[in-house]
Amino acid sequence: MFMRPLFLVPAALSLAALLGACTTGTPQAPAAAAGATPDRSAMTFFVTSVNPGKGGDLGGLAGADAWCKGLADAVGAGRHTWRAYLSAPATAGSPAVNARDRIGKGPWTNADGVVVARNLEELHGAANNINAETGLTQLGARVPMRPQVPNWHDIMTGSDPQGLLKTGVPDATCQGWTSASTGSAFVGHLNRTGINPDPVANVSWNASHGTPGCSLPELARVGGGGLFYCFAAD
C-alpha cells in the first residue's frame, strides 16, 4: 500500500524559514519545477506542519490565524479566510471564544480534496472524518506519529468535544495562546487512539487530554509538536 512521505521539520522552524524552503526546492517543500507543484487552492482544512516556535505561545488567536494564513499562502491556498481551530478564555476586553464559532459553516476538504466534514454538526459528530489519513498538513503530508518519530498526534484546540472552550480545568489554552511555559493546552488525538483511561477521549480528534505545560519540550513529552487545525471560514 502506498504511503505518503512524512513531512519532518524541526519544531522550532520559523514561518520565514518555511516560506524560504518552499522556494528553494528542499525535500520538505512542494516540488519547485514548473507545473509540478500540486494545486492547493481548493483546500479548506489542514493541520499545521510545524509550530511557530514558541509552543503554546501562538501570539493569541490573531497570531494563530496569521500562521494558518502564512502556511496556506505558501502553497497557493491563501485566498481563503483562514482561522485556527482554537478556543480562548475571556479577557478584560473580550468574551470567551469557542473554536467552532470561528471556522465558518463548511464543507471542508483536505489537501487531497477529501471532505473531512460537510458542516459544523458533522464536524462535531460521529460522522467526523478527521483522522491520521485525512488530517493532512498544508503540504498534503501526513503528520508524524507513532511508530514514527517524532510522535505529534496531539493537536492543540483548548476545546471540548463540541468545539466549546474547555472548562473545569485551571487552564486549557496556554493562557489564551500566549504562554510558552506555564499553563496547559487541551489537545485532541489526530490518530483517534491513545492510552488514556477514558475510551471516548482516546478517539476524540479535538478533546482528549491536557498537557503538562506549554513549552515545546513539555508538549512533546505527551505526544505533540504544538500543531493545530486550520479551517477556511469563508
Describe the global form: globular
Flag low-confidence runs: 1-35
- The whole-number mean of residue pLDDT values reads 87
Query: By helix and strand content, what is the structural category?
Result: alpha+beta
Helical amount: 10-25%
Give the N-to-C terminal Cα separation: 35 Å
Number of helices: 6
Major sheet summary line = 6 strands, mixed
Secondary-structure element pattern, one letter each? HEHEEEHEHEHEHE
The total strand number stands at 8
Structural Rg: 16 Å
Give the percentage of residues in beta strands: 5-15%
**Oligomeric form:** single chain
Architecture overview:
The protein contains six helices and eight strands. With 234 residues, the protein is of the alpha+beta class. Strands 1, 2, 5, 6, 7 and 8 form a six-stranded mixed sheet that branches.
Provide a brief overview of the structure:
The chain has 234 residues and is an alpha+beta fold. The protein has helices spanning 15-21, 60-74, 120-123, 174-177, 199-202, 216-221, and strands at residues 45-47, 82-84, 108-109, 115-117, 154-156, 186-189, 209-210, 224-232.
Task: Summarize the helices and strands and which ones pair or pack.
Elements: H1 15-21, E1 45-47, H2 60-74, E2 82-84, E3 108-109, E4 115-117, H3 120-123, E5 154-156, H4 174-177, E6 186-189, H5 199-202, E7 209-210, H6 216-221, E8 224-232
Parallel strand pairs: 5-8
Antiparallel strand pairs: 1-8, 2-8, 3-4, 5-6, 6-7
